[in-house]
């Protein structure tokens, strides 16, 4: 699919309630995969429709489902240069099996979308309750070590 | 021959145990029921604790434990409860009850959520089950694992 910087920027500053038409927007939830899925149109496995009754297009809500859905995944440092945009994941490396594209459902895991040569990362900050953009270096502090290993994923 | 019969009996016993566990039934054969109707938060928590050996067979549960080998609702919830040890974090156990229908029966749809918030470490995982409004009996196979992130 074609993804543009302008489209991603249009989400900046938005609360998840302004993105999810179904109204799954409680601040107590981790909306990172939920945000990514609404942007990219992911509707597989558990979606926001599982959580709330509402009308509109649902989005997937679980990080490990998004990880498994990627065409290819790898360590962030090995992200291929020609890949102009894709997904970036952060969690403890012990929870990830790159070969089988599996991630264990530990609570501390997060996903965003990287874009462009600088790899700007767009993601839903659950503490700020809005979509933000960060550099990869900034994103790497999302969780403290050892839960801050980063991975890339390419999108079908 | 005797070995095969023994194995068959073992399989039948295991199948019966699985069926019991999946049918909202305690180990002593009594049905798991809500104590009050409509249920209080304590009743919801009580049912979840009594259902700890329920297998994680639903698609919403299978593979969503905090360890790859987690196979019961008890292990699934224990994995998230074990993450609440930091006293500086905002942690909570919340319950909710809504009326609904399942397979044509009027039910209470009950949820228990374990919540955690500390900086960007924000999550909420839990379970949902249905119990008949008529007598509070938990419906077989109604356990779902809910949560995002």
- What Rg of chain B do the Cα atoms give? 17 Å
Question: Low-confidence parts of chain A, pLDDT < 50 over ≥5 residues?
Answer: none
Assess the beta-strand content of chain B as a share of residues: 25-35%
The gross shape of chain B turns out to be: globular
Query: What would you report as the Rg of chain A, rounded to the nearest angstrom?
Result: 14 Å
When the domains of chain B are counted, the total is 1
What is the first-to-last residue Cα distance of chain B?
51 Å
Number of helices, where a helix is a run of at least 4 consecutive DSSP H or I residues of chain B: 3
What summary fits the major beta sheet of chain A?
Answer: 6 strands, antiparallel
Question: Strands, helices and their partners?
Answer:
The complex is a heterodimer of chains A (156) and B (149).
Chain A (H helix, E strand, L loop, with lengths): L4 H5 L22 H9 L7 H4 L11 H7 L2 E4 L9 E7 L4 E2 L4 E2 L5 E7 L4 E6 L4 E5 L1 H4 L9 E6 L2
Antiparallel strand pairs in A: 1-8, 2-5, 2-8, 3-4, 5-6, 6-7
Chain B lengths: L1 H21 L18 H10 L22 H9 L8 E13 L2 E14 L2 E12 L11 E5 L1
Antiparallel strand pairs in B: 1-2, 2-3, 3-4
What tags apply to this protein structure?
heterodimer; A: 156 residues; alpha+beta; six-stranded antiparallel sheet; B: 149 residues; four-stranded antiparallel sheet; 27% helix; globular; disordered N terminus
């Amino acid at each position: 699919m074609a993804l543009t910087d302008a489209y991603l920027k249009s989400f900046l500053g938005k609360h998840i309630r302004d993105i999810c038409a179904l109204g799954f927007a409680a601040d107590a939830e981790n909306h990172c995969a939920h945000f990514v899925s609404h942007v990219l149109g992911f509707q597989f496995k558990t979606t926001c429709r599982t959580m709330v009754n509402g009308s509109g297009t649902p989005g997937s809500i679980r990080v490990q489902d998004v990880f498994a859905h990627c065409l290819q995944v790898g360590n962030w440092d090995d992200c291929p240069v020609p890949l102009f945009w894709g997904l970036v994941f952060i969690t403890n490396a012990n929870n990830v099996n790159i070969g089988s594209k599996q991630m264990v459902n530990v609570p501390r895991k997060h996903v965003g979308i990287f874009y462009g040569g600088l790899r700007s990362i767009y993601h839903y900050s659950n503490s700020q309750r809005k979509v933000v953009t960060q550099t990869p270096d900034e994103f790497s502090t999302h969780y403290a070590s050892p839960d801050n290993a980063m991975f890339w994923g390419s999108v079908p | 021959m005797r070995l095969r019969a023994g194995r068959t009996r073992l399989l039948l016993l295991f199948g019966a145990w699985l069926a019991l566990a999946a049918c909202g039934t305690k180990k002593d054969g009594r049905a798991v029921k809500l104590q009050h109707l409509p249920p209080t938060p304590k009743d919801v928590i009580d049912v979840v604790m009594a259902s700890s050996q329920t297998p994680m067979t639903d698609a919403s549960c299978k593979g969503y434990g905090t360890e790859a080998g987690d196979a019961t609702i008890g292990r699934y919830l224990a994995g998230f409860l074990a993450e609440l040890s930091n006293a500086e974090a905002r942690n909570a156990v919340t319950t909710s009850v809504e009326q609904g229908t399942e397979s044509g029966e009027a039910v209470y749809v009950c949820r228990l959520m374990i919540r955690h918030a500390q900086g960007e470490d924000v999550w909420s995982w839990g379970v949902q089950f249905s119990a008949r409004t008529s007598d509070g009996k938990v419906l077989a196979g109604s356990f779902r694992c809910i949560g995002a992130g």
